[in-house]
Write the structure tokens for this entry.
Amino acid sequence: MNRDIPTWTDSLRAGDVRALARAISTVENRAPGWSELLKALFPHSGRARVIGLTGAPGAGKSTLVDQLARFYRATPEALDTGSGRKDKRTVGIIAVDPTSPYTGGAILGDRIRMQEHFSDPGIFIRSMATRGSLGGLARTTADVATVLDAAGRDVILIETVGVGQDEIDIVRLADITVVILVPGMGDDVQTIKAGIMEIADIFVINKSDRDGADRVEREIRALQSLALRHDGWTPPIVKTVASDGTGVKELAAAIAEYEEYLQDENRALKKSVENWQERLIEMLRDAMLEKARAQMSDGNLARLAAEVAEHKRDPYTLIEEIAAGKRSA
Ligand SMILES: Nc1nc2c(ncn2[C@@H]2O[C@H](COP(=O)(O)OP(=O)(O)O)[C@@H](O)[C@H]2O)c(=O)[nH]1
Ligand SMILES: [Mg+2]
């Protein structure tokens, strides 16, 4: 397995979509060779722009991601912040949404768009299994993003439902976080209060074809005036109708503007360092837990748990011993 990693990496970097798909599966399933593969790919990553899009179920995330992906394909200069590149830009999409209608590179129930995506190898879509993720959902998503990045995808769009801590962890790994709200969902303000407010670099009010978009905008503005971001950036509010493409260009412009802002004063690097501090701790925690578990068989764990339950042993000393590597099965 390990011996073909250089070949695999080369194919993937040359744009071989099957090599890419296989790499993502390997990383997602923690299949043999996953960490060797990531070690080989990491030096080639770090160039992609990672955009996280989050919002309530039905807010229009998939529709918007789809539009944005097409926009970037058709308008490569929208991604130009000074590089002067004129070639087509490739897109990777990670859908971390159990209700996401993407399947095998398409949006279900929309045959025309499905065909379009299939005929455009420049858009690669991958749905993540949200349950039973071995390495933890946020970490696995980050690793999959690294694979897409190393494969040369210029933009990586991560769609995730804005509900729990997992999702917040996922969007935190993005360079740019877009929070999508819709008029008339009632829970908008609650969603904002539940921690989403701080993570939004850009707000989108999707379904602006409906009544109430202005009211949502006023609510966001009111909350913004109460809680200014420590970095001084005021997240812009973009109104969209994802289903017909209205506002997508404006969203891309807002993303480019934030990108430029990040490039000033080394902000992008600072943000990345902050992200890596958290990710390294998480990886360390996983590795240490794995090491401790490897020392202890399940049967042994059950026996020790029984001893603690029966108060024959105190759990504090026990954990100290295991953590110090003094106890093995
Ligand atoms: N009226 C209207 N419907 C939209 C808009 N954007 C998406 N939709 C519809 O809303 C539904 C949910 O969209 P989807 O992208 O799957 O939402 P997600 O759950 O956030 O990914 C679909 O039927 C879309 O066609 C919009 O701007 N206006
Ligand atoms: Mg979706």
